[in-house]
Amino acid sequence: MSVLRVLHLVGSAVSDFFCNLSRLYAEDCLKNTANSALYEFHIACISPDRQWRFPTSLDPSAIAAANPMSLAGAVEVLTQLKIDVMVPQMFCIPGMTQYRSLFDMLSIPYVGNPAELMALVADKAKTKAVVAAAGVSVPLGEVVRAGDRLSIDLPVVLKPLNGDNSIGVTLVKNAADYDAALQTALTHSEEVLVEKFIELGREVRCGIIVQAGELVCLPLEEYAVHPDTKPIRSYADKLKQNDDGNLSLTSKDITKSWIVDTSDPITQRVWDRARKCHIALGCRHYSLFDFRIDPHGQPWFLEAGLYCSFAEKSVLSTMVKASGISLDSFFESMLQNALQR
Fold first, then answer.
1. Where are the domains of the chain?
2. What EC number is given for this enzyme (predicted)?
3. What is the pLDDT at residue 228?
4. Which CATH architecture has domain 4-110?
5. In this predicted structure, what is the pLDDT of residue 14?
6. Which CATH architecture has domain 202-340?
7. Cα 316 from chain centroid?
């Protein structure tokens, strides 16, 4: 088998925060999947000014030393590199949509879900509507803007409509707290999804990978929540900013998340709903869904996170490992999925 030229698309066209988040995961992926017998890795790094760089590594000094260029210059470099397949490592909205579309235009296949689906799932309300139509239970919700009156009874959870990592998410139990929570969410999005709060329960994530055309459900990952002390997960449960300004993961602390034994009765219930979500949305290669489990054991769909960085600490990587599949095998199989599209 010839060596594959694999491009890792890293950075953000939006902010330094998303640049750092992307680099955090991409560095882990590069370190743990490098295999010179199989791959020739290349890096394209996007900065918030939308300049492209092709650094030799993701070390900040290497990125700074790389020649910045426009999209036109980047396309010329990509053509010269003769890239076989691209691995998306961008987590901002343009990175998950516009930049994936660019590679469609260039006829360079990429791992993961297509740009149009990423655009859909960036809108939490539209995603809920699709999976609800497939028979999956979703919390009652509505989309509001500044000044809109709320028609859902408290308690409710407010979320920026196209947010991620629980940024700007607030649980509101008292009417006096609603306006402040709305303003917090509106700082991250022009529209806010307000959902009826689902009592705990449990909170889990379910991953699916496609192998030989079949949907393979992975062991669930469960998150530390508590009806009184932690009724919802927050940004601090997922990421933290270190003293040096760089980001690190907190969600992989064993006190915050763990793999659920597949013999747990909740597993089959969640797997059933996750398959419906995957098919209804038209996912390819892999998918990832969050579910809230109420006190009666009923799963409620919360949102879809249809990306994977192939970092060792990525959610899907953790689930795959728990199923007995190595990260190397997972990475290689997903590259082959992309090449066989």
1. 4-110, 140-196, 202-340
2. 6.3.2.4
3. 85
4. 3-Layer(aba) Sandwich (3.40)
5. 95
6. 2-Layer Sandwich (3.30)
7. 10
